[in-house]
Design goal:
single chain; alpha/beta; Rossmann fold; five-stranded parallel β-sheet; 8 helices; 51% helix
Length: 136
């Protein structure tokens, strides 16, 4: 079954905003990339760190972030799944709860390069795996 929609974690959004390989997935027109406002806020917290790491200006990364074809959902949309997501990710990164709740609500896979989503009952794709599957 072809991928139509993915719930993107903050790490892949940051990667795409800095022009890394994740950007190629965002530019694939037949895949809708969704995320939470929480994840966008998390990205904002790391802009200065990432800018320093890659010798880029924060303004440039912020501009590129705004240009990413992303659908952003507020917590109100998926709040009925927060309890289940919290229980599933118990003992793991609490920052991942909101994205898992969104993925559960929409019944879509998660796109993340960290391992916190493993064994969450949701399909998880890394950027490397997506690049290979999508042949991009």
């Amino acid at each position: 079954m072809p991928l139509k929609r993915l719930a993107a974690d903050a790490n892949v959004i940051l990667s795409a905003a800095t022009g890394k390989a994740a950007l190629r997935v965002f530019l694939k027109e037949d895949i809708e990339i969704v995320t939470t406002q929480f994840n966008i806020d998390e990205v904002g917290q790391y802009l200065s760190v990432i800018a320093g790491q890659y010798s880029l200006s924060e303004e440039l990364i912020e501009s590129q972030l705004k240009l990413l074809p992303l659908k952003i959902y507020s917590q109100h949309f998926y709040e009925g799944f927060l309890k289940e997501a919290s229980k599933t990710l118990s003992g793991r990164d609490e920052d991942d709860i909101e994205l898992l709740a969104l993925a559960l609500k929409l019944r879509v896979p998660v796109w993340s390069n960290d391992s916190d989503f493993k064994n969450s009952g949701i399909e998880v794709y890394t950027t490397a795996r997506l690049l290979k599957i999508l042949k991009i």
